[in-house]
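Data deposition worksheet. Section B asks for the primary sequence of the deposited chain exactly as it was used as input, without tags or linkers unless they were present during the calculation. Section C holds the resulting structure in token form. Section D is free text for depositor observations; keep each observation to a single sentence. Incomplete worksheets are returned to the depositor.
Section A, Depositor: J.P.
Section B:
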Amino acid sequence: MSDLETLTQSLARNVKHWRAVRGFTLDVLAARSGVSRGMLIQIEQARTNPSIGTVVKIGDALGVSITTLLDYEQGPKVRIVPAERAVRMWHTDAGSYNRLLAGTEAPGPLEMWDWRLMPGDSSPSEPHPAGTVELVHVTAGELTLTVDGEDHRVPAGASVSFEANVPHVYGNTGDVPMEMVMAVSVPPVH
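Section C:
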């Protein structure tokens, strides 16, 4: 089975599992996530490979990390994620990408990401649930972080934290690749 098939099967199994744990019907999850009931059915039947935005919306609605939704093995308390198992969730032809490095539930979803944005590329993000916080450390180039319409320049070596419950965009307006590591903490669903 290919990596994509493994992820599609894992996503199907885990969305069904967490929907049952939360006691959500398909209609409730659709309303909470903004993802159509038809798309949720296709995901739960492993008949589609949804976008990262769709997976984020489902995870936010269920109160679990993307890592939890894509987890294909239930492991011990210590879990090492080999480099080749980092999941590339988004990429462009220019060479920009993000990779989900690791994640856990502590007590809500906590994720660690590796990003590379090529000059001129950007990646918008919809607002996350209230209480979501993102921490970013820029390792190369300069990040132009737009939070709720306001630009913030974050040079290599600097870090930034922000409340991510508003629209935000990660951008590279420079002329060299920008690289960053990001942690996202989402509050648990009650």
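Section D:
Residues 132 and 186 are 4 Å apart (CA to CA).
The two ends are 36 Å apart (CA to CA).
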